[in-house]
Amino acid sequence: MAEKTKAAGVPKAKKIWMDGELVDWDKAQVHVLVHALHYGSSVFEGMRCYSTPGGPACFRLHDHLHRLRQSAKIYRMDIPYTDEELAAATKELIRVNEQQRCYVRPIVFRGYGPMGVNPLDSPVQVTIATWEWGAYLGDEAARTGIDVCVSSWTRLAPNTEPSLAKAGANYMNSQLMKMEAVINGYAEAIALDINGYVAEGSGENIFIVKDGGIVTPPSGASILPGITRHSVIVLAKELGHEVRKQIIPREGLYIADEVFLTGSAAEITPVRSVDRIPVADGKPGPITAALRKAFLDIVTGAVPDRHGWLEPV
Length: 313
Ligand SMILES: Cc1ncc(COP(=O)(O)O)c(C=O)c1O
Known about the structure:
There is one protein chain. Helices cover 26% and strands 28% of the residues. The strands form three sheets. Strands 10, 11, 12, 13, 14, 15, 16, 17 and 18 form a nine-stranded mixed sheet that branches. Strands 3, 4, 5, 6, 7, 8, 9 and 19 form an eight-stranded antiparallel sheet that branches. β10, α5 and β11 (188-192) form a beta-alpha-beta unit. By secondary structure, the chain is α+β, with helices and mostly antiparallel strands. It has two domains: 3-131, 2-Layer Sandwich (D-amino Acid Aminotransferase, Chain A, domain 1), CATH 3.30.470.10; 141-299, D-amino Acid Aminotransferase, subunit A, domain 2 (D-amino Acid Aminotransferase, Chain A, domain 2), CATH 3.20.10. α2 (61-74) packs across α3. The model is unreliable at 1-6 (pLDDT under 50). The structure holds pyridoxal-5'-phosphate (PLP). Pyridoxal-5'-phosphate binds at residues 46, 174, 200, 203-205, 224, 226-229, 262-264.
């Protein structure tokens, strides 16, 4: 059985994959002078492995590894492993850790080297960790919906930190958003982009439903183009809904019929209020519920995987 760590509360697994080796969980360590610790030079992924009738299966593993490589490319990092090698490593790790379901966290970072800001002479390291992680925004969230606020922090401006890279440094902005939200009694914050339009949550994309149509901000609105977001767009179209990638003004959140967040960690989470203004009647709406069901049916193997999204471990 998984044992809880004291500090972070992440349940320990047996091993972590580190630069090609399976290392004991407690021995997966780096030097305090790694470049990433000082300058934020890391890119990473977060995905889930689900328990299905056919055994554990990773959701869109290759799409996540593809995005990891693109994030690394933006920061001129050469990942010293192929996607196939990283996919095999991920699956081997889950098998060795004997996990039926888990969260998977590959990270590529600049390691120990010259301590200047220039990262190019620091080695690129890769690790993959897996742990059991329940509902990211709380167990009640799916049933009741969550309360969110619009952040006083603006999301990354396009000419500052690229939002298409899932870079560790981007999450300093996310942390400012999240801390402000939590301290003020909200489950999550939604940031606006530099132009004042809705961007995304600290770790999720956002959708609104209005008059039967579904809208989500475009990739130019300082968002990470989520893999769950893409999956939801595909599923929504299958359910007969029109989906538009379109800028959303802040007040569009207040007058939406439904609002929901998507992410590998958050899955599909309904929002019941924004800045204490109830979304419709303050209860999760039918389109959110139908999409959530369609998503969970696929990831848990309850229905056939018609899109080839599940990769058996
Ligand atoms: C800032 C941000 N936006 C969006 C997402 C959703 O992306 P995905 O669905 O690929 O997990 C995440 C989660 O990874 C995120 O951290």
